[in-house]
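Human: Here is a favour to ask of a fellow structure person. Comparing notes only helps if you start from a blank page. I am asking you to supply a protein in sequence and C-alpha cell form. Write it directly below this note and I will take it from there.

Assistant:
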Amino acid sequence: MAEYEYQNSEAWNTALKLAATVGRLKIASNLKASADAQAKAFEQAGLAVALIAEGTGREGNAQVGLYRDARGALAQCRAWVHVLAAVTNEQDSVFGNELDLAEQCSRQLSASIRNAERGPAPGMGGGGGQGPLARPQGRGPAPAGFRPGGPPRQGGPR
C-alpha cells in the first residue's frame, strides 16, 4: 500500500520513471551544451513529478491547473531531450525510451484532466449525479405495485 496518495497515480509513477531515466543518461560528449540540455530535461521531469504529486491532493480547478502545468513541464522535458539529441548528433530514436515515457505521462495527465473537468459520475455520490436507483427525469412516479429487480408476478403468495 502506498504511503502517500500521489504514489497511486499512474502519471506520477511514469513521470518518476522519466526523471530517473533522464538523470541516468550517459552522454558521450564533452560539450557543455549536452550536459546543460540533460540537466534541463531532468529539471523539467522533476518539476512534472512535483506538480503531479501536488495535484493529487487538490480538487477541481486547482488540480486541473497543476496537471496542465505538469503537462507543460513534460513538453519542455521532451523539447530538451530533442535538443540533447541534436547537440550530440544522435537520432531522436536513441532517446526513444525517454520520449515515449514523456508522451505516455502526458496522455495519462490528459485523461486525468478530462475526468476532473467532467466531474463525478452520475450515481457515484457526487453532487451532480442522481442516485443509482433514481428514475430518469421527465417520467412520472412509479406505477402502483412497481417492484424493481424482477419480473412481475401473477397472483398472490404461493
